[in-house]
Write a structure and sequence with these properties.
Oligomer: single chain
Distance between the termini: 37 Å
Shape: globular
Strand order of the largest sheet: 3-2-1-4-5-7-6
Largest sheet: 7 strands, mixed
Structural class: alpha/beta
Strand content: 15-25%
Helix content: 25-40%
Order of helices and strands: HHHHEHEHEEHEHEHHHE
CATH superfamily: Vaccinia Virus protein VP39
CATH architecture: 3-Layer(aba) Sandwich
Number of domains: 1
Number of helices: 11
CATH topology: Rossmann fold
C-alpha cells in the first residue's frame, strides 16, 4: 500500500497530459448525464451512498467501480455478469441497483468470505434480488458456469498464471470479457516471482487477450490525484465533499491509451462485442 501511495504521488506531481496536447484528451461525460437520469431517484440516492463508502475505502476502489460500470454500459443488453474481484463487493451493490435487468454474481479472489460482509448486509437491507454472492475463488473459475459478461477486477496481477485465469474466464463468458490491472513500466515477473505485484506492461496485457479495446485508467490528471486527495481526508470530510470527489473521479473514464506510464497507473480491457465462445 505504501508503495502504491508513493507511486501515485510521484505520478500526480508530474502532472503529465494524457497526450501531447490537452486538446487531444477525450472529454468524459458528466456524471448526471452518464447516470441515465437516476441521480435523484431512490436508486440514485442509494448508489450515491455506496459511492461514499467506496470513496471512504480510499485507494482505487471507487475508480475501479467506475471503470467496471463503464464496461457494463458498453456491453449492451446483458442478462448476467460474473465479477471476480479483490475488493469488498460494494461495486456489485451499486451495479445491481443501476442495472436491475442484469443478474450479477460476485466472488472474492482473496479467499476470504468476510470481505463481502458490508455488501451482504446492504443487499439484504435493500432486498436486492439480482445480486448473488458466490464462494471465494482462489484457484479456478468453475467450468460449468456461463455468463454474458465476465469481469476480472484487479486480480490478474495477483495470480501466478494470469494467462490460465484469462482462459478460464473466456470459457465461461458467452459474450464479453473485461479486465483491469495496474500498469507497469516494464516486466516485473520471472520464474521465481509468484505474482506480478507492480502490474503489466501494455504489450504483456495485450498478449493475454483476443481482439478488444484497451484503455488507460487511474490517469495522472484525474484518478491518481483523486487517490492522493482521499488519503488526506477523514471519512467525514469525504462524505461532505462526496459530490465534488465523484465528479472528479468521473473524469478518469475516457477513451484513451497512455503512451507513457507517467500518464496513467492502470489499464482496462473489454473484448469485442461479437466474440462468441461456447461454454
Amino acid at each position: 500500500m505504501d508503495d502504491w501511495n508513493d507511486l501515485a504521488k510521484k505520478v500526480s506531481d508530474k502532472r503529465r497530459a494524457v497526450s501531447a496536447t490537452s486538446a487531444e484528451v477525450p472529454q468524459p461525460r458528466p456524471r448526471s448525464e452518464a447516470m441515465n437520469g437516476i441521480v435523484d431517484s431512490i436508486e440514485g440516492r442509494r448508489i450515491n451512498k455506496i459511492a461514499v463508502l467506496l470513496l471512504q475505502r480510499r485507494g482505487w476502489h471507487y475508480l475501479n467501480y467506475l471503470h467496471l460500470r463503464d464496461a457494463v454500459r458498453r456491453s449492451g443488453d446483458l442478462g448476467s455478469a460474473f465479477i471476480l474481484t479483490a475488493g469488498y463487493g460494494l461495486d456489485g451493490v451499486a451495479l445491481a441497483l443501476e442495472f436491475p435487468q442484469i443478474r450479477f454474481h460476485l466472488a472474492s479472489h482473496r479467499g476470504d468470505s468476510t470481505r463481502f460482509r458490508k455488501a451482504r448486509e446492504i443487499t439484504v437491507e435493500w432486498s436486492l434480488q439480482n445480486l448473488v454472492f458466490e464462494k471465494p475463488i482462489a484457484s479456478e473459475i468453475p467450468h460449468h458456469w456461463s455468463f454474458e459478461l465476465v469481469a476480472l477486477c484487479e486480480v490478474l496481477h495477483l495470480v501466478s498464471d494470469p494467462q490460465m485465469l484469462v482462459e478460464e474466464a473466456l470459457q465461461v463468458s458467452r459474450r464479453r470479457l473485461y479486465a483491469a490491472v495496474p500498469l507497469a513500466a516494464d516486466s516485473s515477473r520471472d520464474d521465481e516471482t509468484p505474482s506480478r505485484v507492480t502490474g503489466f506492461t501494455r504489450a504483456e496485457f495485450e498478449d493475454l487477450f483476443p481482439t478488444g479495446t484497451i484503455r488507460g485508467c487511474y490517469w495522472s490528471h484525474s484518478g491518481a490525484e483523486l487517490r492522493n486527495q482521499l488519503e488526506d481526508l477523514s471519512d467525514g470530510q469525504i462524505r461532505e465533499a462526496s459530490g465534488q470527489l465523484m465528479d472528479e473521479a468521473w473524469a478518469d473514464v475516457i477513451d484513451a491509451i497512455p503512451v507513457r506510464r507517467a500518464e496513467a497507473l492502470g489499464m482496462s480491457y473489454l473484448s469485442d462485442p461479437h466474440r462468441s465462445v461456447e461454454p
